[in-house]
Amino acid sequence: MDGDTSGVEGDNWNTDDELEIDNFSLSSNSSLTLPNGEAVACSGEASSSAGSSNSKLIDHFIGMGFSEKMVAKAIQENGKENTDSILETLLTYSALESSPQGQQHIDSDHCSLECEGSFLDDFSDVDSFSDNEEITNPVSDEDEKLLSLVKMGYTRDEASIAIERCGLDSSLVELTDFITAAQMAKVADVHFPLEDKPRPNLSYKKRKHFDYEMWKRKKQRGLEKRLLHDDDDEIVRLPNPMIGFGVPNEMCQTIHRTLPEAAIGPPFFYYENVALAPKGVWTTISRFLYDVEPEFVDSKYFCAAARKRGYVHNIPIHDRYPLVPLPPSTIFEAFPLTKKWWPSWDPRTKLNCLQTCVGSAKLTERIRKAIEDYDGEPPLHVQKYVLDECRKWNLVWVGRNKVAPLEPDEVEKLLGFPTNHTRGGGISRTDRFKSLGNSFQVDTVAYHLSVLKAMFPNGINLLSLFSGIGGAEVALHRLGIPLKNVVSVEISEVNRNIVRSWWEQTNQRGNLIDLADVQQLNGDRLEELMGSFGGFDLIVGGSPCNNLAGSNRLHRDGLGGKESSLFYDYFRILDLVKCIMNKTQ
DNA sequence: AGAAAGATGAACGGTTTG
DNA sequence: CAAACCGTTCATCTTTCT
Fold first, then answer.
1. Stated in angstroms, how far is A412 CA from B15 C1'?
2. DSSP one-letter string for A155-221
3. Bases on strand C under 7 Å from any protein CB
C-alpha cells in the first residue's frame, strides 16, 4: 500500500490512472474553466447562467464535477424532480466517457437506448473541462499541494496523510499515486469515497474512477439479472412479510447467506435507514456498502409498534436469539389500561411507526367531540375519520371517547429503552419525542447483533456513528456484551448527554468517547483512536433519514439531500476503518 | 416591562406498495 | 384504491434573561 500503482483491477485501472495523472500534471498550471469559458474560483458557485429555479440544481451537479452541458442534458431527460435519476444518468455518461470500450458495451447490452447517441456528442466539452481543470492561488508549498489534492477531489485528510507519508517534497503524481493505491490496492471492488454534494470540489477526474467502477458493476448486474425489459436497474424489492433473514417465532428463516468478498470483516458493520425510501436509494446504499443485500425488517415482529427499516450488515445471521424479557407484542399487552376503553370498531392490535411528532391536544379534543354524541357506536363515516386520525397519529384510548398520544416513557418502552432513558437533564418533552422517533428499535437491533456475544466474550470496541440516544449501545448492553471502548459520534448535544448519562448510570467499565460531527472524523483521528485500543470490532450507524422519509413533504430529496447525504460519511468512515485495519494486520 | 429564547401546535402532499 | 410514512416550517404562546 505504498507508492505502487499496480492495481488489483488490472489494465483498465493502470491505464486510467496513468492517463489521469498525466492529464493532471500536464494541466496543472491552467485554471478551472467551464465550457462557456467562465473561470471558476473555488467551490460551488459555478455557473450563474441558468437563472431559473434550475440553477441551484445545476450548480449542485456542477459542484460534483460534472460539466454544465451534461447536467443540463441529464436534467432535461429526467426532469428536475428526480435528482437520483439525474445522478444516475450523469454517472452513465461519465462512465461511458471514461472507458473507450464502454461505448460498445453499453451499445450492445444496455437495454434503455433512448439516450444513446444523444449524449455521445457531448464528450468534447467534457474533455476540455477536465483538461483545463486546475488550481488557482497556491500559497505555501505544503498548502499548495494540499490544495491541489483537495481540488482534485480528495479529502483534506487523505491529502494530509499522503503528504505526511510521502514527504513534503514528493510530487503531486506521487501523492495521488499514494492515495489511489491506498484505496485501490486493498480490495478490487472498492471504489472511491464519493464525497457527494456537501463538498463541491469533487473533481471530474476522480469522479471518473468512481463512475467507471459504477458502470462496470451496473453492466455486470445487468447481464445477470435483467432480461426483462424496462428502465430502472435492479430496484431493491421489499419483502412481504418484512421479516428480513428471519425474526423470532417465524417459520421462514434464511439459514445462510454468502457475503461479497469485499464485505467481509473485520470490522463488522451495521447500517440502518428507513425501508420506504425513494426508489433507487437502497440500490445505491447497497452498492456503496460492498454490495451487501439489505435486510428489511418491520419491528412489529419484535414489539407492539411497526418500524419498517432496512439494515445492511455483514454480521452472521445464524444462531440469532432475541432479548429477554420479550417485549409486549400487542397494544393491550403494552398498555393494559387501554383495553377498558378500546371500542370494538377499532381493530388495531399494533401501533404504527413511532415518529418524531405526536398528535396535539386539539386533535384529541376534536375526536372526542366527534364521537361523544353516539353511544359507543358512531356511524361508519365517523368511525373512519377517527380511525384514520388514530392511525396517523398513533393515538390510544385512555378514557370514554378519549384518545391520546403516547407519553415519552411509553415510547421508550416500545422501543426497548429503559424507562426515563430520555428524561431529565434539561430535555424537553418535544425533544424526547424527536430523539425517540429517530431511534432504533432496540429489540430488533439486538436480535441482529446477538450473534456477536459468542464471538466477543471479552467485549467489543464500538464505533457508533449517528448514535442518537444510543440504541446500539443499549442493545449491546442488554445482550450482555461488554462495551470496552465506545466512540460515539452524534451531532445533537441533547442526545450526547442522554448517552453519557446512560453510560454513567449503567456503571460501564469501558471508555466512552463522544464526538459531535462525523464530518470531522478523519483518518488521523481514527488512527489515533484505533491505535490506542487496537481497532473497532463493530461500526454501527443509522444515517439521517430526513430526506428519505415519507413524512417529509418538503425536502424528500433522496440520498443527495442535505442531511441524508451524510450516508456517504458513514461509508467514508467505514472504508477508512477497513483500510486502517487491513494495513495494521 | 420588554426583548430574546424556547416550547408547543397546526398546516403542510406525495411517493411507494400491495 | 387504501394505507403508511425516523418531517419541516411558521405562528403563537410561554419562559427566561436583561
1. 29
2. -HHHHHHHHHHH-TT--HHHHHHHHHHHHHSS-TT-------TTSTT--HHHHHHHHHHHHHHHHHH
3. 3-9
Per-residue model confidence as pLDDT tens digits over A211-248: 334 433 433 343 333 333 344 456 788 999 999 999 99
Q: Is the CB of A360 under 7 A from strand B?
A: yes
Q: CA A369, C1' C6: Å apart?
A: 31
For residue A198, say whether its CB is under 7 Å from any atom of strand C: no
Residue A276 beta carbon within 7 A of nucleic strand C: yes
Cα radius of gyration (chain A)? 26
Residues of chain A with pLDDT under 70: 1-68, 75, 78-145, 148-167, 169-234, 585
Q: What is the pLDDT of residues A295-323, one digit of tens each?
A: 999 999 999 999 999 999 999 999 999 99
Nucleotides in B strand less than 7 A from protein CB = 6-18
pTM: predicted TM-score of the whole model, two decimal places: 0.67
Residue A453 has φ and ψ, to the nearest 5°, of -60, -45
Please tell me the predicted confidence (pLDDT) of residue A342.
96
